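batch_manifest entry 22 of 60
target: T9SS type A sorting domain-containing protein
source organism: Chryseobacterium oryctis
requested by: lab member K.T.
priority: normal
notes from requester: please return tokens only, no post-processing; we will run our own comparison against the previous entry in this batch. if the run fails, retry once and flag.
--- input ---
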Amino acid sequence: MKKHLFPLFLLLLGANAHAQQDFFALVGKDTSSIVFSDFRAIDATNGTSGEKIFTADSPVKIFSQARNASVTEDKNNYNNSQAITMATLAYDSSNNNLVYMPMFSSNIYVLNQKTKEITLVENNVARVTSCDINSHMTRMTTGYDGNIYAINNAGTQFLQISKKGSQYVVNDLGIIKDDASNGKNSFTAIETGFGGDMIADAENNFYVFATSGNVFKISTKELKAKFVGKISGIPENYSVNGSAVNANGKVVIASAKGASLYEVDLNTLQAKQIEGEQNLHIYDLASKYFVNNRATSGSVFANLDIYPTRVDEKFININLNDKSIKGKIKMNVFDLSGKNVMNQDFSVKDGSLHQQVYLKNLVNGAYLVNITDESGKILLNKKILVVE
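--- output ---
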């Protein structure tokens, strides 16, 4: 199911209808232990719930990828699509699917939001056992490259879940180790680094938000976790169980203990409470957004930007609000070899432009978008990634 892409200025106004389509929560029941309730859309701007997409009691239709057939699962064990021990969720915006794993299971499930059908991805890569807390999958997100990534409690498994044609493929990328500078704030220690959730940035790095409130940056090249700092502005006993990036590039965190949602600035790790429902027990959050995805790096004007930079529907939006820019601006798109593959002119009226651009004929890959004024002065250079 394709979604409408709204102009950027509507995103900045926090259009509720759009927020309901691309921000999701894994919600539990009001109990002292983990008990899965449902997946639901959530408005990250005001912390209120939307449609319940899939619940612990929903009728299920499951297709096994390994058996190439429909299957019926035993709901009395941990290996089923409605297991009570659920703590991971990611949103695959390219296919409008929700991807998740029961915490005590190696099974991966892909829920089609439109048909409500579930694909079961069995795999021998994830080594998860119910009695080993280190092995439990507790963090999951979509990477900037479009693949799904998951990390277990101790960082001993870093999974990549990708789709090759009609099949899902699981790879183990290796063991994530502590950076030498981490000291007592260890990524692999239960008191400081276990649990929580993860998000991705536009450089395909990952940030893990531990339940303790500690934040670690994961370098995918070095497979090291570097301690960034501890979130401030949340209650002392706040358990950080979910994290996802909102449309404004800020991180929203949530707790399984029925506390409020908070918006966190990743640069300062300062949290600000979001007004809304106070009794949500959220085990995980998921969205289509990325940290630094809207940064104006390469722009000499703070009020000129393009969005999104990970383009999965062939459209980008140009947003300009600067009265010093007049006349026309020109957009050129270059591939990585430096070849100009697209150009287009736009008229600026009263220093304002909100334009949706169709990137026709651009194949999957990375490109540089260059915007200049009438004199040829560069106003913005920004990398985009086109994916199907």
